[in-house]
Amino acid sequence: MAVEGGHEKCADLLLEAGSDINILNKHNVSALHVATQNGHTPLVRFLISRNIDLDAQSQKNNSPLHLAITKNNLSVINSLIKANHNINCLNKRHQTPLHLAADLGNVEIIETLLKAGCDFSMVDKQGKTALAVASRSNHALVVDMIIKAQRYYIWKQENHSNDVSDINLSFKQDHNIQTKQIRASLWNLAYNGLKMREWVKLAQFWKFTDEQIKAIEEQWTGGKSYKEHGHRMFLIWLHGVLIAGQNPIKHLYEDLITLGFQQLAEKFRAENNAGTESKKCSVS
């Protein structure tokens, strides 16, 4: 009752009097479930500070983190993750928190979960990964964010790199003024340079998985949808190249040459070596 009403002081007094903080009601609901359900962030933090069981699950196997995502309560989500709540716990439908967030499409919550380091391989009862769920729900931004994160963690593992600060790491859309010109060039290449399915050739060369390519293709259907698919693929690729500290202009020029796109490569180089900003990373 104290928790349901959001009364932290009453809850504290009850605990001091010997109440069991982890006791469940007949629906297997804990005090943390109730505080999360009702959006009482200070009370959630109080219960965490008193070492409440973070992983208790209700009859529907919803953890507090599942509930917080359903309620779009980012502050509670951050508190639970900071307290080391199991980021990959499953509910009755075998959905991880990332599955739920991917279905709902809240970009800020997705960003938080991705930075916490989710297991992307886990599947729900329908056999779908979180990426497949986001694609099915037509959340193109979320699809791209998940692919960026998948590629980032593979790169980090392969290179044993801890150089990227978690503070600066982001999987959201890039609106940085410093990348404006290269992003414009990539748009031009996707919309005015590549022919149908040629973006897939590049994606495969850059080790995009079949699932990732399929997820990109499931949005923006139509005769010329490949242009937007290619554009999105380029921006995902750019995210990884910049994190790795590589020169995207030089990198793309060389890869276009390798794949036999000589004319596109020369046009791309000329376009990017023309501006003042691009001269800083021109292809020699």
Give a short summary of the structure:
The protein has 284 residues and is mainly α.
Task: Please characterize this protein's 3D structure.
This protein has 284 residues and is an all-alpha fold. Helices cover 55% and strands 0% of the residues. It has two domains: 2-138, Alpha Horseshoe (Serine Threonine Protein Phosphatase 5, Tetratricopeptide repeat), CATH 1.25.40; 174-278, Orthogonal Bundle (Death Domain, Fas). The protein has helices at residues 8-16, 31-37, 41-49, 64-70, 74-82, 97-104, 107-116, 130-136, 140-159, 180-192, 198-205, 210-217, 225-243, 248-258, 262-273. The longest helix has 20 residues, at 140-159. The N and C termini lie far apart (71 Å).
Average residue pLDDT: 86
The unreliable regions are: 276-284
Work out the number of β strands. 0
Say what the CATH topology of the largest domain is. Serine Threonine Protein Phosphatase 5, Tetratricopeptide repeat
Largest sheet: none
Category by helix and strand content: mainly alpha
Order of helices and strands: HHHHHHHHHHHHHHH
Which CATH top level class of the largest domain fits? Mainly Alpha
Query: What global shape is seen?
Result: elongated
CATH architecture of the largest domain: Alpha Horseshoe
GO biological process, one term: signal transduction
Pfam family, one: Ank_2
Protein name: Ankyrin repeat and death domain-containing protein 1B
ANK repeats: 1-26, 27-59, 60-92, 93-125
